Amino acid sequence: MDQAPASVETPWHLLPPGFDEIEAAAGRIADALVRTPLLESERVNRLIGGRLLLKAEGLQRTGSFKARGAWNFISQMEDAARARGVIGFSSGNHAQAVAWAAGRHGAPAVLVMPADAPATKIRRTREWGAEVVLYDRRTEDREAIGRDIAASRGLTLIPPFEDRRIIAGAGTVGIEMIRQAEALGAAPDALLVNCSGGGLAAGCAIAAHALSPTTEVWAVEPQDYDDLARSLASGTRQANDISRPSICDALLAATPGAMTFAVAQRHLRGALGVSDAEAMAAMRLAFEEFRLVLEPGGAAALAAVLAGRIEAGGRVLAVLASGANVDAELFREALAGA
User: Fold this and answer.
1) Lowest-confidence range among 14-18, 193-197, 293-297, 305-309?
2) How far apart are CA 280 and CA 247, in angstroms?
3) 147: which residues sit within 8 A by CB, 6+ positions away?
4) N or C: which end of the chain has fewer CB within 10 A?
């Protein structure tokens, strides 16, 4: 007897997108979002002994790649559902993106955010017109809070990574990186992507696998939140101790998503870890050499190259600088150095 298709048992939105969906998302976001530049520095190339191509995604709407997935999701909603409103949970970048995209579509938005999120992320989410509900990330469950509010108000929940529309939107940055590198006459030997729950890494890996099959795709995470590295090594999803501090607030997932982990197992070469100090050093170099502002989580992939976590000599490395939403005080600290 033939096996029943996976879609019978698994909801549609929890199945990974195909490359065709990522291409469709790229067309959907084209008129609303920014095609951010791929930058190169001769000084940095000499420093690493290879060629580094840096995707300046912090110049995206709302300051991070998250605007891609939020727009792709909300633009596909039915009118009646959009009119009722949306809800999301996030440490800040997804929150800002959902608030912005919802506002552009005329939809009310509620965002559940940790009380210790960077003040600039909380403030800007409110400035985009969203209602912000704060919670304690160490004692409360943001997903439970989000589900309860969604049910009581009839809102559509937009998860930060575990949804094929979010992954497809995030994957559009992978398409851009590969094609921009080709325009520069480069075929990336490796593509490095910052990783929290894994939606960005999954989308970029699917895109890179389709467009440049020989390109290795690596996820980069904080060294004390190395759940993806441990999950890939064990073959089962591993959890983090969320009580551990890290300045990389955008990358502090409790565990990889089930769908994103399945994609990671198939398409990722591995996961690399970086320290807070290494992320700060990468923020400083990004400003000095590329004139870019990066938040710690947005600088993690660059930090992995600078710290020698991956072989750079004689190779082309495409690195995603995924976000720029950093408080001024922390950025000043990064620029001051040790």
Assistant:
1) 14-18
2) 9
3) 157
4) N
Asked if pLDDT for residue 8 goes beyond 70, the answer is no
Which residue stretches of 105-214 are H helix? 119-127, 142-153, 164-183, 199-211
Point out the least confidently predicted range of 6-10, 29-33, 291-295, 314-318.
Answer: 6-10
Q: Which residues of 299-336 are buried (b: 16+ CB within 10 A; e: fewer)?
A: bbbbbbbbbebbebeebbbbbbbbbbbbeeebbebbee
Residues 219 and 7: their CA atoms lie apart, in Å, by 28
What is the average pLDDT value for the chain, to the nearest integer?
95
Contact 72, 169 (CB under 8 A): yes
Beta strands in 49-85 (DSSP E): 51-56
Q: What DSSP designation does 298 have? A: G
Asked whether the beta carbons of 174 and 203 are under 8 A apart, the reply is yes
Taking the C-alpha atoms of residue 76 and residue 16, their distance in angstroms, rounded to an integer, is 17
> 95 with 325: CB under 8 angstroms?
no
74 and 82 Cβ atoms separated by less than 8 Å: yes
Q: How far is the C-alpha of 168 from the C-alpha of 10, rounded, in Å?
A: 18
